[in-house]
Amino acid sequence: MLIDTFGRVATDLRVSLTDRCNLRCTYCMPEEGLQWLAKPDLLTDDEIVRLIGIAVTELGITDVRFTGGEPLLRPGLVSIVDRVAALEPRPKMSLTTNGIGLQRTARALADAGLDRVNVSLDTLRPDVFQAMTRRKRHGDVLDGLAAARDAGLTPVKVNSVLMPGLNDDEAPDLLAWAVENEYELRFIEQMPLDAQHGWKREGMITAGDILASLRTRFDLTPEGDDARGSAPAERWIVDGGPARVGVIASVTRPFCAACDRTRLTADGQIRTCLFAQEESDLRGALRSGAADEEIAGLWKRAMWGKKAGSGLDDPSFLQPQRPMSAIGG
Ligand code: SAM
Ligand code: SF4
What we know:
By secondary structure, the chain is α/β, with parallel strands linked by helices. 31% of the residues lie in helices and 17% in strands.
């Protein structure tokens, strides 16, 4: 088991498959100038499948989520999913993606064994999409979402970040659209994980703001802590159900005490938290011929050092050096 000194057990593994992306969301990446990881530093497909195998068979991981950067840019994605689906015990597998290209690959991913997807979409307005992502790909994301639903990668969840002055008036429209299309919408508070270090707490759109805005049009009933478990999203039943809406309030209502995650970066580093300052190198061990038990031991040791919380509220908080796109969001 992966257990820390606070008794938390990690069962959910986030695997970043690349730090590259075909969008440039303003809260994530600068327009240009971000240094990509060097190709030889990236884990190969075989190395990724081996590490996931160790996590699943030796360390109690039951859920694997592929992310990035943009994971659909990884050429071997379908084959990685296929190989992970063959592991015993078979973990549940999901993908967090910006949806571009999903129209082409949704069916193959579902056939390979992917269970579901989260697609990020912050706005229903193409011009706002372009302002927020610096690319004209709004239609591709909508097509990708529909393809995921049609391929049975359900429930399809939609992740939205609200930014002041850009899309902060869109929460009710996004929810109405999600309910109509049978997507489960989750708002994510903007976190200090952008490569440009431009995040400011003042002015950020909080969970409180989002809920107040939604309540102007919808009746929201809290789903309650039992239903939440270790999920980061607090959920509300919309207009009596069955639709739900979630809010991931990492900044204003952190859920660190219930965290069940461990993270593997595309270059083979273990991180115990998005906000961790430390990483533990598994790639070096892999490439120097370490046995599975040795790698499992390094992973357990890393987990043992997991901090109690993100430290966001600590006056000495320092943003991690790696941006979200290189950690795996
Ligand atoms: N490219 C994929 C995507 O956009 O879904 C996967 C990686 S992305 C880093 C994962 C999620 O993190 C997305 O939903 C994105 O909106 C969110 N995200 C990125 N930067 C963020 C930030 N500074 N604060 C909150 N969420 C952020
Ligand atoms: Fe790319 Fe996802 Fe970051 Fe947007 S949030 S720039 S889609 S990695």
